[in-house]
Design goal:
Layout (H helix, E strand, L loop, with lengths): L2 H35 L2 E7 L4 H16 L2 E7 L1 H11 L9 E5 L3 H7 L7 H6 L8 H6 L2 E2 L2 E2 L2 E2 L3 E8 H5 L1 H11 L9 H10 L22 H12 L5 E2 L2 E2 L4 H12 L13 H9 L5 E5 L3 H4 L11 E5 L7 E2 L1 E5 L6 H12 L1 H11 L6 H5 L1 H6 L3 H7 L19 H16 L5 H16 L4
Parallel strand pairs: 1-2, 1-3
Antiparallel strand pairs: 3-13, 4-5, 6-13, 7-10, 7-11, 7-12, 8-9
Helix pairs in contact: 10-11, 10-19, 19-20
Amino acid sequence: MTSRRKMRIAVSIMAVVFVALTFCSWALAKNAEAAVEKTTIRALWFYSPYLDFLEGWIKNEFSEKTGISVITERGSHEDVYPKLMLDVKSPKPMYDIWVSDGVWIPELAQTGELFEFTPELMDQIKGVKDIDSVWLKGMGGYEGKQYGLPTPGGVNLLFYRKSLLEDKKLAGKFKERYGYELGVPKDWDQYRDFAEFFTKKYNSDSPTDYGMTIPTVNPFGYIWWLHIYWALGGNEIENGRLNYDNEISRESLRKFLEFFKYATPASPGNAYGQAMDEFVQGNVASLIIWDGFAGAMVDPKISRIADDLAYAMVPGSAPNIGGQVIMINPRSAHQEAALELVKWFMSTEIQSRITLENSQTNGNIVGATQEGAVRKFPWLKAIKDSWPIGRHRFAQSAGGETIIPMAQAQDLIGAELQKMVIGQQTIDEFIKVVTEQVNKVLKEYY
């Protein structure tokens, strides 16, 4: 056999092998695509109002396009937390996707292995680049790694009756009494004056019986009080220990308790929904609450003040921010399908539609500033202005990451603070009890 003939045979064999390998690669890719298309994934989803319409979008748009079926199991704080803590440690996970409270990330990171959204992976998730950087890091970041991506969350805002500030007769009496112009309260002393002035017990000319309603049920009162503590310069955590045993803390707690003089009688037992219900009946001047409740407050079917609602950043410029993050279970057998859902959900297109639907935002700047949404939900500006100065509970500093174990500490502090509100313990007793209890838990980690 000549060398030329041998060469021709070798080239032919190589060509056959190349075609066979190409076909096998194509077949494997097709099989992988088909496997993803036929996958059903399960998501444990911390409930938020946007989920009511998002589930329909997932079914009719995402699943229709990709062939990936999604079963969402929604739940409250009390439902999701124990299931999540079990699943993060389980070798046979129940869920492929978790939508967790963002402040649980540090505890989850210590409890079990987490899926990391690396910079390379986040480059593939197109909507990430449009998210406010402070919001992105604060919601899902821990020790320099990104374990979750922010879902539509919230900011505490001040809501009030705008007609109260437009009444010239009231404005004149306010200035005569307090020495400055009636307006949106900028700090907590001004808010005290505002609340007192619009409480009939302290001002017979007030058109409202109460200056405010306060959601106080554990842990909502704790979240409300933190605005005052932060605004006065307090930090919750110093060197890994609770930092409440100081004069700033005591002063903030005295101010907090004073507000109940101007609040509705039901305030010490109010959850968020009950506080909102009191406010929208029209006999209360103001309410500090998460922005996610704004949509209901402008709904004339349930709100008597729908056309009279105004909004601003919370007094003191230290707003409490929070929300959930979407995560992928690292032990999921369907990570590719889960990642497809994350990419679709986090896209600027979907997040902009969510904001346009009910004003909720995940920090996506494009979505939060779109003309149609801002015109429909003008409080979006106050939300956006709150992002750069917002703070997370149980963080060592403004803009800092939450430390572990947030969930346990929040429940301990919230329960004891409510006892203080109803007179079962003094400020010093509250500080002593929570410092001992929370630091005992912290010592397990730090």
